[in-house]
Amino acid sequence: MSEQATGLARTAQIVKFLLKYRSAGIFTGLDHDALLEDVEAEVAPQGKPEEFVTDLEALGPTFIKLGQALSTRPDMVPPDYMAALQRMQDNVTQLPFDVVRGVIEEELGVRINKMFQQFDEAPLGSASLAQVHRAVLRDGREVAVKVQRPDAQASVRADLDALKSIAGKIDRGTDMGRRLRFGDWVGEFARALIAELDYRIEAENLQRFGERLSAYPELVVPTPIWSLCGKRVLTMDLIRGRKVTDVTGLQRTEQPLGDVAAALLRAYLDQAFVHGEIHADPHPGNLLLSEDGRLAIFDLGMIAHVPPKRRDRLLKLLFAAVDGRGEDVANEGISISTRLEDFDEERYMREVGQMVASYASRSGGRTVSEGRLVLDLTRIGTACGLRTPPELSLLGKTLLNLESICDALDPDMDAKEVVQEHLEAVMRQRLRKSLSPAGLAGELIEMEGLVREAPRKLNNLLTLLADNRLQVRIEGLDDSKLMENMQKIANRITVGLIIAALLVSSALMMRINTGAVLFGYPAIAIVLFIIAAMLGLFVVGSVLVTDRRARPKEERGLH
C-alpha cells in the first residue's frame, strides 16, 4: 500500500472515531459533511466514556497523549468523559531487549556493555512511546535508562498530519471549529508532543527543575547523565520508592506527609508564576515517595512555557479566586481571552461570580478544589462565547492533579489555605522586586528618557499646529476589507445602472424600424437585450459564488 493510501486509511479511521462520539458532547457541533469530505468512513454506533478511552488507547501513542491533553479541556469534553480520561492507562507490550539494545547503541554510538556494568533486560515500566530499564554504571551508580520505541517518531508524525488535516476541515466548515480553533489547539499539541520525543529537552527540564526545586528539601528530581543522553535515550539517577497512591494510612501515621504535600503545591506554584513553566502532566504515576521520605518528580517531557504578561494575568486571576473576589476573576478571565461575536458578558459575570462565591464559602482539604474552579471557569467561558487561552485549562488540570496527590499524602491538608498563603508570598516577592534598587533604577531610566525627549516632542507638535500641518493617519484603511467591500458595492451599482440603461434602450429601439431584424425583432434592440441579460446573469452568479457570510467578529482581551 502506498504512503498516500496509508495516510488516507488512517485519516478515515480517525474520522470514524470522531463520528462515533459526535453526539456525546465531545467535539460538539462538528459537521458530518465537513469531516467526510475526501474520506469514506463508516459511521459507528455511539460510544460510552470507558469505551471512548479504550478506543483512544487502541489508536496508538499519539491518541493516548491526545486523551491526556483533552482531559485539560472541559470546553470540549463532558465531565463523565473527563473522569474516564483521568483513568487512562499507557501500558503496552514490552519491546524485545535486542530492539532496546539496538536503539541505545545506535543513539549513543557505543556498545551497551562498554557503557554499563549491568543492564536489566526486564523493564521497570513500558509505555506507548518508551520503556525504562534499570542499569548500573561502571562506577557503581544506579541509573534509569529511558529508551524510545523505534517507530514512535514516524507513527506520531503521520498521526499529527492526519489530525491537522481534519482540524483544518473542522475550522473551515463548522461554527464550533471557528469558535474553538481546533487547528490552533492541534498545532500546539503537535509542537509539545514533538518536543517530548526529543529526550535531550527532557534532560534539560530535569536539570532546570532540579536546580529550581533545590529550595524545597522535601522534593527531589533525578539528575540526568549527560554523557549517556541522546535524542532517543535518556539516562538519569534511579530513585527507588512507591507511588503516592500506594501510601497507606499506617505509613502516614508513622511519617506525617503534610509538609511534603504542601512543598509540592508551593513548588509548582513557583514554577508557574515565578518561572513561567507549567508541568503538563504531574499525575500520581509521575511522582514517587522515595525511601528517604522525599517526593521524587519524573517525566518532565511536556512543559508549557507562559509569557510574563500572561503569567501576571493568571496570577491575578487565581489570587482573586482564592480570595473570593468573583467580579475580579471574571474581569481577568475576559482580559486574557478572546470575545466572540455572541459573547454574553452579563451571563458570564453572573455565573463566574456565583461559582467563586460558592467556592469561597467552603474550606477544608477535601471540599475545595482550585483546579476544578479554574476548569469550570474555562467551561463557563466557552458556554458564554469566550475563547479562553490554553494556559488557563492547563493550569486547572495541573492543580487538579496536584490536589489528588496531596489528598493521597495528607487527606486533612487544607489545599486552599496553602495556595492562598503562597500566592500572597509570591505577590509580596514581586512587589519587593519592583521596589528593589535595580527595579527602581530601570523605572528611573525610563522616566529620564521621557523627561529628556518631552521638550523636543512638544516643540514639534506645536510647530505642526502653528503651520496647520498636523495630520492623523489610520494605517491599513486603504487595504482593509472595508475598502474592498465598498469597491465591490460601487462596481455592482455601476453594472446595475448599465444593465438598466441597456434594457431601457432595448425597449425604445423596439419601436424603431431599422431594416435589420433578428428573430423577428429589430436587431439592435435584440443585441442590447442579450447584452443586458448576460450582464445580469454574471452579476447574479458573482453574488452566489463570491459572497459569503462574514466571519464572527472576535475581540481579544488585554494581554
Layout of helices and strands, plus pairs?
Elements (H helix, E strand, L loop, with lengths): L2 H18 L11 H5 L12 H11 L1 H10 L8 H8 L10 H12 L3 H4 E4 L5 E2 L3 E8 L4 E7 L3 H22 L1 H6 L1 H15 L2 H14 L6 E2 L12 E5 L3 E3 L5 H6 L3 H16 L3 E3 L7 E4 L4 E3 L5 E3 L2 H15 L3 H10 L2 E2 L5 H16 L9 H14 L2 E2 L2 H20 L5 H20 L2 H30 L14 H29 L7 E2 L2 E2 H24 L8 E2 L3
Parallel strand pairs: 5-10
Antiparallel strand pairs: 1-3, 2-3, 3-4, 4-6, 7-9, 8-11, 9-10, 12-13, 12-16, 14-15
Helix pairs in contact: 1-8, 3-4, 3-5, 8-10, 13-18, 13-19, 14-15, 14-19, 15-16, 16-17, 17-18, 21-22
Describe this structure in words.
The chain has 559 residues and is α+β, with helices and mostly antiparallel strands. The protein folds into 4 domains: 3-91 and 165-184, no CATH class; 243-435, no CATH class; 437-472; 482-556. Helix content is 58%, strand content 10%. The chain is built from 22 helices and 16 strands. The chain has helices at residues 3-20, 32-36, 49-59, 61-70, 79-86, 97-108, 112-115, 152-173, 175-180, 182-196, 199-212, 249-254, 258-273, 308-322, 326-335, 345-360, 370-383, 390-409, 415-434, 437-466, 481-509, 523-546, and strands spanning 116-119, 125-126, 130-137, 142-148, 219-220, 233-237, 241-243, 277-279, 287-290, 295-297, 303-305, 338-339, 386-387, 517-518, 521-522, 555-556. The strands form 5 sheets. Strands 1, 2, 3, 4 and 6 form a 5-stranded antiparallel β-sheet that branches. A 4-stranded mixed β-sheet has the order 5-10-9-7. A hairpin with a 4-residue loop joins β3 (130-137) and β4 (142-148). α14 (308-322) packs across α19, α15 (326-335) packs across α16 and α16 (345-360) runs antiparallel to α17 (370-383). The radius of gyration is 32 Å and the shape is extended. 34% of the residues are buried.
